[in-house]
Recover the amino acids of this structure.
C-alpha cells in the first residue's frame, strides 16, 4: 500500500515540468519547514548520464531546535525523482572508511553538510552498524512523494547534534532509467502532541545469495529477533534487484526454523523497481519474536555479459552467478526495512 497525500503535504508543483520523449514530469517541491515545524533536507539536482549508476552519501547534523532537548518526529515526507533505486537515512555510528569529515561541503536546504560521491559510499560494510532512520523507494513519476504519519502516540527520537547520513542511488542503464535529473528530499515534521512511544527500526540483509545460470530458481530467507518485550510492526518495505520475483515478510515466533504460515505474512511485493511501502500496519510481535523474510529469485541473462558477473563472484564458479552487491546491473540484494514500536533497546541490524 502506498500513501500519497498531496494536499496534506502542501506539495508545490513547479510552473514548468520536463518533457522527454513525449512524457511529462511535474517537478515536486516540498515546503521549507520552520524550526517549530521540523527539519528540511534536500539534495541539489544532478545529472545521471546514460549507462551510469550513482550512489552519493550526504552527512548532516540534527539541528538544535529545542534548547538541547530531543526532537520528536511523528511524520516524514520523502520525495524522489524518477530513476531512484533507493533513498536511506541512517544514524552514523562507528566510522570506518566513510565519514562526514571526508566529504565536500554542501548546502542541503535546511541544513549544511558534506557529501561523498561514489567511492566508499558503495561499500555497505561502512554502515553495517548504523541504525536505520527512514527509507523510500518510491520514485514513480505519478507518485514521487511518500508521506508517512506515524501511529498515534509514536515518534522518532533525534538528538541535537546527532550525525545522520542520507544515501541516494540513481540508475540510468538497462534495468532502470533516470529520464530527467536526480534529486531527493526529506521533511522531518516535529511532533506537536507529546508522543510517548519511540519508534524503532530493523534493517536486515541476506548476504549469502547466489543466483546462478545452471541452478534452479532459488529462495533465500532470514530471520531477525526484536528486543525483549511485545512489539507492533507499523511499516515495512522489501528491496531486491531485477532478478527478484517475490519478497515476503512474516511475523516470527523467534523459535521455529520453518517458514511461518500464510496467516503470519504481513508484506508481499513482486515489483523490484518500485516495491510497495506498506504503511499503517498493525502487526503484533510476541515477546521473543521478530521478523522472518524471504526472497524468490530467477536467473536472467545479464545485459553486461557473464564475464562481468563472473568477475564479481567470490567463489569463482564461472556460472554467471549474481551475488550480494550494490550494483543493480551486476549484483543482487535481499534487504528488509521494518519499523516497530515501542523501541525498548537500540535499533536492530541483522546481517
Amino acid at each position: 500500500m502506498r500513501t500519497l497525500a498531496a494536499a496534506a503535504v502542501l506539495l508545490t508543483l513547479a510552473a514548468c515540468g520536463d518533457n522527454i520523449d513525449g512524457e511529462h514530469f511535474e517537478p515536486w517541491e516540498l515546503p521549507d519547514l520552520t524550526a517549530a515545524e521540523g527539519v528540511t533536507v534536500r539534495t541539489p539536482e544532478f545529472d545521471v548520464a546514460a549507462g551510469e549508476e550513482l550512489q552519493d552519501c550526504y552527512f548532516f547534523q540534527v539541528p538544535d531546535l529545542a534548547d538541547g532537548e530531543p526532537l520528536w518526529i511523528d511524520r516524514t515526507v520523502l520525495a524522489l525523482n524518477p530513476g531512484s533505486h533507493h533513498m536511506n537515512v541512517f544514524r552514523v555510528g562507528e566510522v570506518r572508511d566513510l565519514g562526514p569529515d571526508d566529504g565536500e561541503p554542501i548546502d542541503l536546504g535546511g541544513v549544511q553538510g558534506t557529501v561523498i560521491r561514489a567511492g566508499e559510499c558503495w561499500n555497505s560494510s561502512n554502515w553495517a552498524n548504523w541504525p536505520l532512520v527512514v527509507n523510500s523507494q518510491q520514485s514513480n513519476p505519478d507518485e514521487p512523494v511518500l508521506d508517512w504519519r506515524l501511529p498515534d502516540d509514536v515518534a522518532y527520537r533525534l538528538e541535537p547534534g546527532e550525525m545522520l547520513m542520507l544515501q541516494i542511488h540513481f540508475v540510468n542503464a538497462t534495468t532502470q532509467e533516470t529520464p530527467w535529473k536526480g534529486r531527493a528530499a526529506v521533511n522531518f515534521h516535529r511532533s506537536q502532541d507529546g508522543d510517548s512511544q519511540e519508534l524503532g527500526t530493523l534493517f536486515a540483509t541476506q548476504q549469502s545469495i547466489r543466483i546462478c545460470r545452471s541452478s534452479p530458481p532459488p529462495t533465500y530467507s532470514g530471520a531477525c529477533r526484536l528486543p525483549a518485550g511485545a512489539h507492533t510492526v507499523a511499516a515495512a518495505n522489501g528491496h531486491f534487484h531485477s532478478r527478484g520475483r517475490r519478497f515476503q515478510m512474516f511475523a516470527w515466533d523467534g523459535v521455529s526454523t520453518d517458514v511461518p504460515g500464510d496467516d503470519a505474512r504481513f508484506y508481499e511485493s513482486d515489483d523490484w523497481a518500485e516495491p510497495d511501502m506498506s504503511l499503517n500496519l498493525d502487526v503484533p510481535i510476541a515477546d521473543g519474536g521478530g521478523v522472518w523474510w524471504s526472497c524468490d529469485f530467477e536467473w536472467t541473462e545479464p545485459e553486461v555479459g557473464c564475464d562481468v558477473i563472473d568477475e564479481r563472484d567470490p567463489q569463482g564458479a564461472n556460472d554467471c552467478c549474481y551475488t550480494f552487491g550494490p550494483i543493480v546491473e551486476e549484483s543482487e540484494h535481499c534487504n528488509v526495512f521494518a519499523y516497530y514500536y515501542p523501541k525498548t533497546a537500540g535499533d536492530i541490524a541483522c546481517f
